[in-house]
Amino acid sequence: MTSEDIALTGERQAAARRLLADPIVTDRTHPEDFALIRAHSDWLIQRFRRVLGYDLTVAADHARLAKTGLARPAARPLTRPSGAHFTPRTYSYLALCLAVLVEAPSTLPVARLAEDVGAAAAEAGLALAPRERMGERRAFTAALRKLAEWGAVGEAHGSLSAYADDPAEEALLSVHQEVVRRVVAHPPHATADARAFVDEHDTADPAGDDAGEIALRRALAETAVVYRADLSERQRRRLANHQWRAAAELGDLLGCDTEIRAEGVALIMPGDAAAEGGAAFPASDPVAQAALLLLERLVARLSPASVPESAVEVPEDVLTGELAEVLAAETRSRPGFGARSALRHEPDPDTLAARALRLLHDTGLMHHPDPSGADRSGWRLRAAAARYGGRPSGGGGHDREQGAAETPATPPR
Questions:
Q1: Is residue 227 part of a domain?
Q2: What sign does the dihedral 283-285-291-294 (CA atoms) show?
Q3: What is the band of 408 on the pLDDT scale with cuts at 50, 70, 90?
Q4: What is the pTM of this model?
Q5: Mean pLDDT for all residues in the chain
Q6: DSSP code string of 304-347
Q7: Which residue, of 72, 164, 190, 232, has the greatest Cβ tally within 10 A?
Q8: What's the confidence (pLDDT) of residue 392?
Q9: Which domain range does residue 56 map to?
């Protein structure tokens, strides 16, 4: 293979990883990545359809990868810049904003949008009033910030942050209607309830062999670790028969390696995947750093690689004690840790532990039936955690970047 061929392949795979991590890419939000996607659109459209069964649309100013299947196992909650998950109220504002913006002019004052959203909420029988209270405005502007992150709207004048604090602040939005229309990949239709709608789009275990193999590739691409014990008997057989072919197909599309072990299979993304938008672990943000330190300590104490099962129970007192040690280490290593201010994006100690545990659950390194709950019992350390080695609980130092180039990636949907 010539150097030109290697460069061409690298560009295509980098574009594919960007789309897998950020299914909406625009010339405003990711200009360099979008240029690559446009240049290799034919290859990307064909490969995503063949390997993962995903539909890719590439327009003049945006690209949208519409994903199918894995509605539950690969779903990730939307978050604010602080890392806090969207509340049901914020999701309601997001849906209402989309409903209003689809027929909005190309420029629109935020105050006018708030008025229209309030009217739409009243028509739907929802008690939402984004113009009246600060808490309502902040939920409303959080939804708009997410739309701005996706390239559906932009701040033409003023800022959404200023409007959130004071409705008298002027802010003008630029509206990109084609992107607005693409945000919802699978528009809702009449169903009995929300669960029925999700069930219709969840095809993690289809009956047909071809569809079943595509479902396995989706699981490998969209989840950090696929454990054989978590699969149905039918999918376990398919994984045993087709795992090397799946590894080759995904490696060609994404430029990743595949780690295949008795407990399961994980994709190992290139070291620059995090820079391309993938949610890699370890990472440099405070939650990921605390999660890595906790994982190291638990692995050192519990040795998950030494037991035949795919997970080992974490006693409640052990987890509570190690979390306390992690928070103490964070306090020592970062002056001012836990100090509150209106501009802080770091989680305070009260929420850092919960978010670190949720991250470890989402990356397949730990498991709990209800990872969002406050219960410290019932957590299990999974087999993939053993790759982080772990230092003894009394060990010093924070060598936290270990393994960053060879960690499973968990791209959001």
A1: yes
A2: positive
A3: very low
A4: 0.83
A5: 84
A6: GGGSSSSEEE--HHHHHHHHHHHHHHHHHHSTTTT---TT--SP
A7: 164
A8: 47
A9: 3-66
